[in-house]
Specification:
Number of domains: 2
CATH superfamily of the largest domain: Endonuclease Chain A
Largest sheet: 10 strands, mixed
CATH architecture of the largest domain: 2-Layer Sandwich
Radius of gyration: 21 Å
Distance between the termini: 51 Å
Number of helices: 11
Number of strands: 17
Shape: globular
Order of helices and strands: HEEEHEHEHEEEHEHEEHEHEHEEEHEH
Structural class: alpha/beta
């Protein structure tokens, strides 16, 4: 056989082997896929300026939107942990071995620090005994799923780093390199770290609204910032459409707004988690009113807590639209005004509701 042909075959087989190994390592959470979280690491975040009383950040990065399991949220989170010197996370649940390994590895480095806040109902002390952890002992949930990396990157959404959360359930994450957002979340984290949970927390002097390049982002923490009121305000402004993906939805006021908007010829559509269709679920009233509502077919969970308004605005975070989520639990939401990010969430809705 001609040597040139042999070299070509060898090169082809080598390339295939590299791709197979890379896919294997990504699946196992050893490598983070490119063009996702890697895009926001190692870049400087510009100091914020101020205009019209809100801070403005200009940065070469864009928010990274991930959908689990297809974007391997576990590997992305482990990658960020590995690249950071200061990691502050508040998780409702945490048991994923890859993430635990990353946290324990950097915690052994004296130049780095890891702090965790966990809900007591999901306490796994044997898994977390090598880490610095504060537990919420209250009757409500510490239901957050956020991290702050090096006071400049915020990770939040519906994803709990567990095997089910990363490999089976439908979840979303948004990661943003922003010192303004990081400061907001840091103030919330410090209250929780000092064991102030639920109604014990005080409303903080944070930048609830900021401009990130051309994107306006709003931040709210529950219960002190009255998250449901902020969501209702956005829903009432809808002119064309409201799309929702809800793990649990029992908030009567939000349900009423959706029904009223339907009468105003606003297009309403929703996706609901099948395990949460109690008698109190908004699914029943919406279906009775003729709203196109779909039941998730994932054998595991559809765990999103998302509203998409007029194809322009996304509301996401840890809070289910329930009274408990608004008034009792420790939660966080982002309201993101950006059509490109909205389109990503609409694609997720279309994919899951087929």
């Amino acid at each position: 056989m001609d040597n040139k042909i042999k070299r070509g075959i060898f090169a082809l087989l080598t390339t295939i082997l590299i791709l197979v190994l890379a896919a294997f390592f990504i699946q196992k959470g050893i490598l983070a896929p490119p063009n996702k979280i890697t895009d926001i690491t190692g870049l400087m975040v510009a100091d914020a300026t101020s205009s019209q009383h809100i801070p403005i950040e200009k940065t070469p990065t864009t928010p990274v939107v991930l959908f689990c399991p297809r974007d391997n949220c576990t590997a992305q989170l482990a990658f960020l942990i590995d690249k950071s010197k200061a990691v502050n996370c508040a998780f409702f649940d945490l048991s994923e071995p890859v993430v635990l390994h990353a946290l324990k590895t950097i915690s052994k480095n004296t130049s780095k620090r890891v702090r965790l806040i966990m809900d007591n109902d999901t306490k796994k002390k044997t898994l977390l005994n090598d880490l610095d952890v504060v537990y919420d002992e209250s009757d409500f949930f510490m239901h957050n799923k956020f991290c702050i990396f090096d006071d400049r990157i915020v990770w939040t959404g519906s994803f709990n780093p567990t095997k089910g959360g990363g490999e089976k359930s439908n979840n979303n994450v948004i990661a943003i390199a922003s010192t303004v957002l990081a400061e907001n979340y840091h103030k919330e984290f410090e209250q929780l770290w000092n064991k102030k949970f639920g109604k014990q927390k005080e409303a903080q002097d944070i930048n609830h609204k900021m401009q990130y390049n051309d994107i306006v982002i709003e931040t709210y923490f529950c219960p002190q910032d009255h998250c449901a009121e902020e969501i209702l305000s956005e829903l009432k402004e809808a002119k064309e459409s409201i799309t929702l993906m809800a793990y649990s939805f029992t908030d009567n006021n939000m349900e009423k707004v959706l029904l009223e908007k339907q009468k105003q010829d606003v297009k309403i559509q929703g996706l609901f988690e099948k395990q949460q269709l109690s008698d109190y679920s908004a699914y029943h009233a919406l279906k009775k009113a003729g709203v196109p509502v779909f039941i998730d077919t994932n054998p595991s969970l559809m765990h999103h807590k998302v509203f998409i308004i007029d194809n322009q605005t996304v509301i996401t975070g840890s809070m289910n639209p329930t009274r408990r989520g608004d008034e009792g639990n420790d939660e966080n939401i982002l309201i993101i005004h950006d059509p490109q990010i909205a389109s990503k969430f609409l694609e997720e809705f279309e994919r899951l509701s087929r």
